[in-house]
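Pipeline run #58 for the internal structure catalog. This entry was flagged by the ingest filter as a single-chain record with no existing model, so it goes straight to prediction. Upstream metadata was stripped on purpose; only the residue string is passed forward. Reviewer on rotation: M.T. Logging verbosity set to normal.
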Amino acid sequence: MLSRAVQKMNDQSKDVLLGGGFGWGGKRTSDADELSAAEWVRQQVFDDILSGRLLPGEKLSEVHVARRLGCSRTPVREAFRHLGALGLIQFEKNRGVKVARLGRDAMLALFDATAELESACADLAARRLTALERKRLVLCSAEPVGRDGGEAALYALLHGAAGNPVLAELAQMVHQRLAPYWRLTGGGAEEWRRVGAEAKSRVVEAVVAGDGTRARAAMRAYVLAARAIAERSLALP
């Protein structure tokens, strides 16, 4: 049985990979169990970067963001720090804050990191999968591959089944940084629906069979297939 903390991370992982449900101008809940002010602001800004409402190189103002979201500057400042640590925004001395520019080398490094982290999760999930998780994974395998490329439901299930919150958290951080690149894949979307569906089925088959070694290899192939498509689809410096 997953702890509440691990389950919350899995839910957040699904939101991140699907672009979240946190659109600009959303309303923060007052429930103490829900997001803090800084977390909520971070999700709003992240969603703007992912959707393209904030473009690479665009300047960010604490005052402007606070005014639009109806909050003080303190949670905005905290959110900026977190997004900076993720590499999504940059702080420049005497020039303020701006959305990070996307680069080819950074993208490839993020895909490589994703391949390592997610293959480890798939290996652990195959060895620890419960009967209920197996049923959910089989149902997930029937879902079509989407343009988001990250297949949020698949990753969330594997993160939960792996039972390692440290791996799950690290994988989610990398996915956050990778998400803006997926938004730009454009022409690679149709190819991914075909290639991704085949690769995804091999991952699910291996995990359901309880074969950790094969699951690790299948997940690595799955992520690297996405990497190859993104590399061909995006013209990045």
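catalog note: The radius of gyration is 18 Å.
catalog note: The first strand starts at residue 59 and ends at 60.
status: ready for reviewer M.T.
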